[in-house]
Fold this protein.
Amino acid sequence: MPDKRGVCNPVSIEMIEFNPEWQIEDNELGIYYISGVIPQRLIYTSLGGNIQPEFAQRAILSFEKLLCSGRLGNGNYSRIADFSEVKKIPLNSRILYADALNELQEKYNFQPKITYVCGASLLVKTMLRAIASHVKQNLVFVPTVQDAFDLFNNVSCMWETEQSEQVIISRKEMNDFAKLCGQILYDKSYSIEEHRKLLRPEHPLHELYKIITVLNNDLRELLETEKEQNHKIKAALETSQELNKELSDQKKNVEEKKEIQKILIENLKKAREEAEIASRAKSEFLANMSHEIRTPLHAAIGMTELLLDTPLNSQQKHYTHNIHISTKQLHQLINDILDFSKIESGRLDKEKSLFDLRKLFDEISSVLTSSAEKAGLQLMFIIPPSIPSTLSGHPNYLQQVIINLVQNALKFTYQGKIIVNVEPVSETRDIINLRISVKDTGIGIPEGKKELIFQRFTQLDSSATRKEGGTGLGLAITRKLVEFMGGTINIESREHEGSEFWFVISFLKPLENKKNSNANSVGHIAASSEHDTAEAVQRIEKTWPSNTRILVVEDNRINQQVATAMLAKLGLTADIAANGLEAIEALKQVPYTIVIMDLQMPLMGGLDATREIRKMETGVINPNVPIIAITANATREDRQECLNACMNDFITKPFMIQSLKDILQKWIPESCI
Ligand code: ADP
């Protein structure tokens, strides 16, 4: 601190404060960095060893800690840097060190008045001199730390002596020096020994020689660094080229895969189209075949039905009865196969329609009760009154499922009863879930065989089935239909005790639905059987008006006979047309009351004929004559097709006398009757 006269007290090495945080050392490498401070006056640093860039970085960090400590104050200070133990500071370390010192200068306003560099060898001195301008510090080189203190305390003025020293050089010395410079620059194999001979330490240009050596070394180091960097750049280039190649290979790969994918998609599309064509062909084939098979079958069933009504001896009656059963079974088989193929090809009618659940059960009962009675079995239908009558769903499929299950129950039950039960499982404002079950007291199904029976053409005991017939398709169809309606079919069964088949299906409740108050809580719904026909015919025979004229349009000769014979049984006569064209001609001549028309016929089919008949310009006597289609299958599409062609109704082939009677009653105008 300056005294009253402005003179500062002298400082000494003992006054330096040290702190372990401000110093680092690496004993293994023999390098160290120590820094200390005499507050307001002096910074002391001491560096030793071969200072590589990594260590220089660490030294700077520890020095920064000193600057951060605030021990230096804002005073007018100097720096004493002891370099006496420094062996080497490569160019990179020097640059890094100088840059870092400059940064600290900015950051902490670190600006020593003078930096005394102590004990630096000639080489180190030269190195420091070379970079002095970059460090922006005023460097003064002194031999020892004590010399630095003496200078600082104004005890000596050695610095000035050094500055003013004169050097005298002879021409020979200049020449020797030039020769040496040449060797340093161009002759890589020069030896320091040779140089020593040429340039002894007492040579006046010895220091200059040192400077050139340092600069030459620095140059070599720079070249080395450049070489290294070039090498790295080359390696990076090679890697990037490899990567590029890999990338382009992968791109090519992706493109190839895309190409393959395209081909696969193309093939798949083709295969699908082919499959669709095949499937369409199959459906068409089935439809045609079914027509071809149904036509003679219709004839066979109709004829046997008529034959059974004629006086026959008991043997004849027995044979005819067997023919009747066999043809009906064949009819069932064809229907099952067609149904199954229709389900398989996803051609089920998705549209839901309103239906009356109790009426549907009435219909089922009317179909099956007589068979149950014949077998001595009780058939019961249970629908609790809480279940609304009108629902929305798939009535045709539901009916088919229940009929299939009851028919199976009838086949495999030898005594006892069959109960068809409907129970509400849950209900919301719009939906009711119903559990529908068919339970019998029959032979049951052994454990382990329950899944088997749902497979196509599977019959557990062919001897039992043979007795009653069957195709082995019934349950496969049933399961698919139940699943189509959103349910799952389940079985509970014990061998010799009986079986229960059940499923749960959701039905929509139409808004205007009112709970059916007059429904039976438990009811056996009686059905009229086909065998009541004779009586019904008797009743109706008297009611046909005398001017009733019927035209049957049918190409198959035997079916023509079946139709006329059935109509005759109903007390009616009919004219025959073999195709649409003949029908039109006949309708031009005779005012027929009703036309019963087959769909598939040569020359002109039923649909085209109807369209022609409805046209005024065709000139039939009554273009609005009721036309009843004879269809193979009562599907929605068939029905729609008939209606689109302006037909009035349809009757499904093969038809029985009863259904013929019903449809005639419906369509023969009131005034006629
Ligand atoms: P099928 O036309 O032969 O009746 P299904 O697919 O309807 O064909 O039935 C397959 C088999 O499942 C039947 O042959 C029979 O062995 C068994 N089965 C079906 N329903 C019952 C039942 N209620 N009781 C006992 N066995 C049954």
Notes: The first strand starts at residue 17 and ends at 26. The chain has four domains: 13-161, 173-239, 353-530, 537-672. Confidence is low (pLDDT under 50) at residues 2-6, 513-542. The radius of gyration is 58 Å.
